[in-house]
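Continuing from the previous page of notes. For each protein in this section, the sequence appears first, followed by its structure tokens. Read the first protein now.
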Amino acid sequence: MPDDSTPGNKPADVLRAVRERLHAERAAAVENFRRDHGTQELVNRMRAAVDTAVIALRDEARLPADCVLVAVGGYGRGELFPRSDVDILVLLGQPLDPVGHERVERFIGNCWDLGLTVGHSVRTLDECIDEAARDITIQTALVEARRLAGSRALFASLRERLAATLDIRQFYQAKMLEMRQRHIKHDDTPYSLEPNVKESQGGLRDTQIILWIARAAGLGESWRELAERQLITAAEATAIARNERFIKTIRVHLHLLAGRTEDRLVFDLQEQLAANMGFSPQGPRRASEVLMQRYYWAAKAVVQLNTIVLQNIGDRIFERTTLPGRPIDERFQEINGLLDVTADDVFERDPAAMLEAFLVMQRQPELKGMSARLLRSLWHARTRIDQDFRADPRNKATFLALLQSPRGIVHELRRMNQTSVLGRYLPAFRRIIGQMQHDLFHAYTVDQHIMNVLRNLRRFTMAEHAHEYPLCSRLIANFERHWLLYVAALFHDIAKGRGGDHSKLGMVDARRFCKQHDLPDEDADLVVFLVEQHLQMSNVAQKRDLSDPDVIRGFAETVGDRRRLAALYLLTVADIRGTSPKVWNAWKATLLENLYHATDRLLCNDAPAPDRRSALEERRAEALRILRLYAFSDKAHEALWNQLDVGFFLRHDAQTIAWLTRSLHYRVAPDSAVVKARLAHIGDGLEVALYTRDEPDLFARVCGYFDSKRFTILDARVHTTRNGYALDTFVVTEAGSVPGRNDYRSLVSLVETELAQHIDNHAPLQPPSKGRIGREIRHFPIEPRIELVPDERAKFYFLTMSAADRSGLLYVIARLLAEFRVSVHSAKIMTLGDRVEDSFVVSGTGLSDAKRQLELETRLLNALQVPDTTAPTSIVF
């Protein structure tokens, strides 16, 4: 060992030389990877470069001769990703003296100075064994231990002691529990929109856990060795190795792009990563969507094989004797609570049994799952599900029986999806497995969204969930052959990602399915109608004026009869609730329910078709009846009502008309603004009424106030009275509030006082607040759309817009409309996750000028644009 004082061999010179060599070798490995995309070669070269550097630093620090330098964890496994931690154990032959302490500290410090992210531990042999007994993570790290330098005898003793003290059965159970907890932490799905390729279900940890347990049990250290011991077939070994390699390649690219340890496929990196991996756009699908679908397929395969192999290893470890099975029929039996096949070649001899296996699971509630042998047989026989299989009447009858079962429908459809049987039976469904939806309100892939919708429909049929949506539970209980709704749910989004109108394209697929499965014309027509019109009820409820009899009449004509209305309502509620936890709220529920009841009354055989006049008279009469309950005289309302036109009475229900009359009948021409607020009838938020002299920028100033208080406007109805006053009503909720909160009552007096003062002060319009823009919005923006068209008499204009949502957006729009002297008469605010689709009825003298209208539309489009904050990054060593 050279002396530190020798010229040219000073510690700083040694460290510099080691650093330069390490950086050069890692940079060469990355450059080679970018040329050849050899993932395994990259991680091996990264590990070799770090091995050389760490050993050199060990020699430079002159660690005690009786210690061993041990690589543990992923580093011990022999794989290092570009930004992985380097886990090192300094295994001591005896406790350190002060000099030894100093040298170990110098070694670790030099590792950090080298730029390595070091996870280190310094322990004696006894300490290692004791810590491993207490901590499964340490035990797992030692299972993968690899000697770098030092005493071979001491390292051999570590391996021997660990093997002698490790209880493989406890280790297996602990790792299974750890895996379950990890899956729950990462949403218990491989289909997260930003999956963690290391930790999520179907990620690298799910492959590593197999090899950890197998290595600890002495059953093998590679896929090839597991195949040799018949724990996995050669085909399965090839499949899991191929998918593991693909996920490893993604992880390498993530580290290189982020320049740090980044194991999440975040929105910020997906597009650039797809380009770096050679993925290209396919039709309407982005390159990133193609990449993500390929990832989901790989993760799904890992989940399948992980289940099979771990079950086989468990049987071997616990020496489970194969007890005589309880016969179910000639193809299936029950063993240890699991459904099993009676022979390995059951599905090869009788492919129809593949679908029937799931039917048996539905009909045998005591079964806890499927055996590894059955799952393996399914996996190998899945390609037998072809055109002839789908045309077989026996298989068609089985699939319909699965949908008509009284229990286990969603559970078995999910299992069919996970085992690739569903996608094979429904080829159109296979195309949307793992298909992402960058529309800012779907939080799931298309196939998972469809499963969520099916789950929601099923919950409507269960007594234990009847309290959640009583109307839905009542409707579905009286709905004959409600399994047809499940067919519609399967197909309603099945054409996503193809380009074009997915409702129209999905309708064709649904019609083909119904014809192939010999559904009666009446049932087929219902399914096709639901798929084609599955967005219609939501659009009408959230964008149109439900107080307008013509709107209800038009929707009733589209629906046609009460059975279709009930079916469409059920599917719509299930669909919206299945998109994202952020999308559904009490306001949407109320709008849909109001639309259902109004249309249902019209479709009743004994109900006359409503017109504006009868609706107006009925509403006025009901409002007067309510006022009498408050001891109002028959003429107390007249002063106010004489200032209101027909439009006001048609836009508001009788309860709201009575409330406003009680509040304003004695101050028809006030000198200052009058603001009244009450708890919204939807159960969340406030209903706020403003009565003041009309001004061109009044709507903008109201929006500015609500924006400053972080209130979200759900609905706005603007009315100008005959005597020049504005009578506007708003439904608002606090941004980010928890549904069902009960403290809005405390805000009533505050809003009444502050908003009135805000309007009376005539303060200039303030700049809108700057809210945080979500990452998905930044990287997968929705192209804003504006449409401004006149009504039949060109008196009013309909302004509709769609854009990515952000704080203060409505206020931005209102300020622009005020600048162009455009008056807002009503506003429907529809928020779908991180996307808004708003519609307004407006008027203004300048709107008839084509040049002025074009200028307004251009300014609105510019205001709706999301600033481009993306910038591809690429970090090299």
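Done with the first. The second protein uses the same format. Note its length before scrolling.
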Amino acid sequence: MKELSSSQVRQMFLDFFKEKGHDVEPSASLIPVDDPTLLWINSGVATLKKYFDGSVVPKNPRITNAQKSIRTNDIENVGKTARHLTFFEMLGNFSVGDYFKKEVIPWAWELLTSPKWFALDPEKLYVTVYPKDQDAKALWEKTGVPASHIFEVEDNFWDIGEGPSGPDTEIFFDRGQQYNNVADDDPENHPGGENERYLEIWNIVFSQYNHLPDGRYVDQPHKNIDTGMGLERVVSVMQHTATNFETDLFMPLIKYTETLSDHRTYGADKHDDVAFKIIADHARTVTFAIGDGALPSNEGRGYVLRRLIRRAAVNGRRLGIQGEFLYQLVPVVGNIMQSYYPEILRNQEFIQKVIRSEEKRFAETLDAGLSLLNKSIADLQATGETVIPGATAFKLFDTFGFPVELTKEIAGDQGIDVDMKGYEANMTAQRERARAARGDQQSMGSQDKTLMAIKSESQFTGWTDLEDQATLTDLIQDDAEKTRVEAGTAQLIFDQTPFYAEMGGQVADTGVVEDEDGAVVAKVTDVQHAPNGQNLHTVEVENTLEKGATYFLKVDTERRRKVSMNHTATHLLDQALRQVLGEHTHQAGSLVEPTYLRFDFTNFGQVTSEQLRQVEAIVNEQIWRQLPITWEEMPIEEAKKQGAIAMFGDKYGKTVRVVTIGDFNREFDGGTHPVNTAALGLFKITGESGIGAGVRRIEAVTSKEAYEYLTQQEDLLAETAANLKSDQVKNVPHKVEQLQADLKASQKTVEGLQAKLASQAAGDVFGNVQEAGDFTLVAAKVNVAGMNELRQLGDQWRDKAVSDVLVLATASDDKVSLLVGASKDAIQRGVKAGDLIKAIAPAIGGGGGGRPDMAQAGGKNPAGIQDALKLAAETLAAK
């Protein structure tokens, strides 16, 4: 077995399959693109779904990749086991309808055992197969694996419920008896069993069936191969480590954390080791996730980031680390991963800024969580209870980021236990809510056999021509190929077409199909890309269409012109945002319609009105400079050298189309544009808002729509001027300032009068002190405006020490406000304002609560006020 670094293992895997004719796909963003079924990219195959479900046919059916991935369903186990991680890399090789079992099994054995490659000892390798998959078993034996090293396991079948499925085979490495954690006669003591000796390093899925909604399994039109090899696991084998964490992927992080800790050393204490591992794993995850555009928030993937940062911060405290520290590990992650992910070090400053800001925010939250825990313990000790409720433990975990183990540890020091059943019940409820929120969307669709089988050539001519003569090569209706269609909805493919298919946020062209006599035979309502790349026209048939016939295709030119202008505006906007907000900003989505454009982008924090005005000015400056717009196809490496901007999260082939706007902007792009920025005329931002964690949205208009928007705003301003009786629009701000000043003065007058009324009411009320058992009580209905005035009276009552207890009520229409106060002496004798108001509030048809010294309630039953006051006296008298 060779001694290889993690970067060498990754590269060797990719090089092996490149030699076998595979294209190397770059690692995609961790944030899924156009896939609502996934929170994160969680496997190597997740970014290749479009190939496996048949929506796109790849140029090369053989693909290999090293894909960064995040899985968060086992966060609680990270640090406690040898293998659980939130961030990991999955090495994979994939066949989309090309090779199958007889090729992939020998290749797997060659990579693992050949002296040229990994050179693992064949005697230490074992495989498992699905019992009914005797073909795979026979192929392993033919490859040279002894029958004694092949185990049949019923679980070796990959199935996601609906969609592609099939048997799989797993490869295990025997780490030796010294790692065995079960007895020799234990039924789990075998490859594939629950033990630490046999480590799974590779899974090969034979995706040959389609699992239908009715439960049947039918053959896939194309049989596929999907494999996954966890880089961290293989590296641990190559580097002879007990767990993933002693490899070169983690140890630099752990060593750096040691320097930050309170003289703690990895390997000296098992509890400290858990903390070291959690910090190392979470540092990798948040670094890569933020680098790919995710930002901490209270929902979705942003919530995951926030939880990971907080969990790392809590474990930093356990190691004696004070203050923010996780951000310091970002360059360490970057240096470890530099050979394959150089972008981490390029974006280091921004990633550190985000993490440190979140750490600072959590410092206060962490103290609040500790305060809640300490209060819970104190309350239990006061009542003689010894168990923290599960709901409290879950709140500490869910709201404050406290792992339940830490809660147990702190509570245990005080002789207090934790209701783990209650905690698990709350955790299960949360998971059910999350599962319900994801809905029933399938993670992979079924292949469309009809469209996948169509291989006819089709050329797009619409870069320059909006009318063209073309032959109808393929005619589909009701998911079947036809030679003739007379009515209804159909799908058409022509040998060439000027119609643009929806892509990159730009909507599809619409228009008509005419026969040789100029009669409209179909209206084009949508255009999408077919699995093999052709422009697939969806049409409403108005007259007979025949396969093989010649037709005239005419795009709606005015619609295309307006769409193209708005598309160019998104390029200008993208570049302007980078200039104003920083290079970390990148496009997160767009929509280009004829009448407006929508542009989503990542940004840490809100965009100020001044920044928006600056962006708008930059875009308009480029329009008025009348910059030429050109495009050309070139090798992707050449495009990168020229500084062309790639759409974030997209993958590109070896040849790309680059659109250049004068000296201002150059981007990878597949959309349509005018020939000069002057065509846009004017650009105006109409709205800016946040749409998710760290994602902002700008809506804007150009040309005629921009003029109409400005005219509408001018009309509104003129109307406002008229209402303010201002003879000129320019005087409106001054008029509004005057009105605000007048309003503020009036409010002060009203507040002064209310204060006088409250003082008069106090004089009347505080003179009427009654006895209620052992307590003195002021209880009355007062004629004041509302709760604010009741609180003013409460402050006066406290300052003057009028009585032990105060109960005041006021009513306005059908709304009742109720206030209860208790003096320090009354509290010491067992009276709590919060308890008393809960007892009497039902009388006014409401409820409330508060502190022991002051509480308030609201209700909708003014007739019950006297009952509430009477009940207060009776409750005190009974104490």
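What the second structure shows: The chain has five domains: 6-241, 290-437, 456-555, 560-715, 750-877. The longest strand covers residues 198-211. We return to this in next week's lecture.
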